[in-house]
Prior knowledge:
Number of strands: 2
Radius of gyration: 11 Å
Order of helices and strands: HEHEH
Structural class: mainly alpha
Number of helices: 3
Shape: globular
Distance between the termini: 22 Å
Mean pLDDT: 94
Strand content: 5-15%
Number of domains: 1
Amino acid sequence: MMVTHIQGDGLWGLLVDAAREPEWAIMPVGCPAIVFSQAMIDALPEGLDVDAVIISSGHELYETILAR
């Protein structure tokens, strides 16, 4: 799934909810892989696991992206 130009808190939460169940990593351009558990980090290909970040909410996703 590819998403662009997200605005509003609700949409960040929706993106996290959509990615959590199938255990999809979120990979914003210029950011590390964003996942929901250590097990997901362990399953990432070598190199993508280096700076991976574990989040639990849309707000944390937004803050992680803004920090980069």
